[in-house]
């Protein structure tokens, strides 16, 4: 192993996704959405993962957001929020 290989820092990426489900009563105002389900929040998931694996986050992307209607009446929707991190650490 030469000096360059010994000092080279390997970086990797990982994407995390949070799903949220919202509901609105038929006939309600357009902004009257009620959160009915969310998996573990992204902040908690990413912090727990990086701490338990002793990793350093180098960069975090802007969130990507996608929403889909879950019924024809448009009273339920799913919102996916995704964040990609670049990290380095002892588990590379």
Question: Main attributes?
Answer:
single chain, 92 residues, alpha+beta, five-stranded antiparallel β-sheet, 2 helices
What would you note in describing this structure?
With 92 residues, this protein is α+β, with helices and mostly antiparallel strands. The chain has one domain (10-89). The chain is built from 2 helices and 5 strands, in the order H-E-E-H-E-E-E. It has helices at residues 3-7, 42-52, and strands at 12-23, 34-38, 55-60, 64-69, 76-89. Strands 1, 2, 3, 4 and 5 form a 5-stranded antiparallel β-sheet that branches. The mean pLDDT is 89.
Question: Would you spell out the secondary-structure blueprint of this structure?
Answer:
Layout: H1 3-7, E1 12-23, E2 34-38, H2 42-52, E3 55-60, E4 64-69, E5 76-89
Antiparallel strand pairs: 1-2, 1-5, 3-5, 4-5
**Total individual domains:** 1
Distance between the termini: 17 Å
The proportion of strand residues reads over 45%
Largest sheet: 5 strands, antiparallel
**Overall morphology:** elongated
- State the total count of DSSP E strands: 5
**SSE pattern, N- to C-terminal:** HEEHEEE
Structural class: alpha+beta
Overall residue-averaged pLDDT value = 89
**Uncertain runs with pLDDT below 50, 5 residues or more?**
none
Give the radius of gyration.
19 Å
Number of helices: 2
Helical fraction: 10-25%
């Amino acid at each position: 192993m030469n000096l360059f290989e010994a000092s080279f820092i390997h970086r990797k990426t990982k994407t995390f996704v949070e799903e949220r489900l919202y509901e609105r009563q038929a006939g309600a105002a357009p902004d009257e959405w009620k959160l009915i389900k969310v998996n573990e929040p992204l902040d908690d998931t990413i912090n727990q993962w990086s701490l338990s694996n002793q990793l350093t986050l180098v960069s975090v992307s802007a969130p990507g957001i996608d929403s889909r209607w879950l019924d024809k009446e448009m009273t339920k929707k799913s919102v996916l929020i995704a964040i990609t991190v670049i990290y380095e650490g002892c588990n590379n």
